[in-house]
Amino acid sequence: MTTGTDGKLANLPSPGTRTGYTFSAWKNGEQAVDENTVYTDDATLTAEWLPITYNVIFDANGGVNANNTGSQSFRDVKYGETLSPAAVTRASHRFLGWSRSRDGGQIVAELQNLTATQGETVTLYAKWEYQAKNITFDADGGIINSSGSRVPTVTVQTQAEPLDTIDASRFPMPEARRYLTFVGWFTEKNGKGTQVTPSGGITDGTVFTEDTTVYAYWKYEPLTITLDCKGGTVRVNGQDVKKTTMQTRYPGIVDGILPTPTRKGYTFLGWYLSDGTKVDNTTLYEKDTTIYARWQGTGKWNPKTGDQIMLGLSLTILTAAAAGLGAAVVLRKRKK
Fold it and tell me: Model pTM greater than 0.85?
């Protein structure tokens, strides 16, 4: 451009636009110039640009920052300035970066030049990735039906909401076991430790803070076995009794050793059911049962007395009816 005879420029050119900046002035070196500036020498004019300023809010989006707050604000951030927000943390989550969407959109590559509009407020949200815990359910002798497969263990991952829990629809239920009742899942075997529960019920459910194995607890309901000595006795707590009871243990056998009763003049043959089936310490019972002592004989068993009816010859000694006669021995065949 050429000055007039008065050394001035008729007008100054438009500087155009620059993203993130506003035009301030044309400058000759360090001096700002305008239409009234008089030039005495050739000059190079340079546009001066000032960065726009804006505000930024870093929302921890469920987490907290180093100041233990949910957000951090930066005011009057200059275009071109790089921001360094405080680190953020969230239980059971891994921080991925900052996004313009609360629901987790694209990660902002650089924390600078977030807007080109003067005075605008930009909110960035922490983007998180949930770190699920692996919970192994051990049926402890039972079976779990998992996706059509019958397996002794199954692993289920926790969920983010409610945090680190497992909802009822994904909580395994083992198959029924004979003689046993399923009580629940526990952090230790045999019902020890803490019972774990699903979310979505009356309570919020168990919160798992790490990979965990939990165990099914099976409860056996003992049966009562009544021992009827049938004329004999057994020694119980220092006393001779005609009847006593024992409890069963899983899987339905007597908890202990069947006692041997005594009966004067008889030999004990064993314990029997009412139908004549002999039982021992390995017999499995499915209900409360009475067993009966059987005593030695050579014939058919009498379930009313526990005796065996003698067959063959019985000896009857008849004394003489008249004075002076000796004893007579008569052998008589017993009627069958």
Answer: no
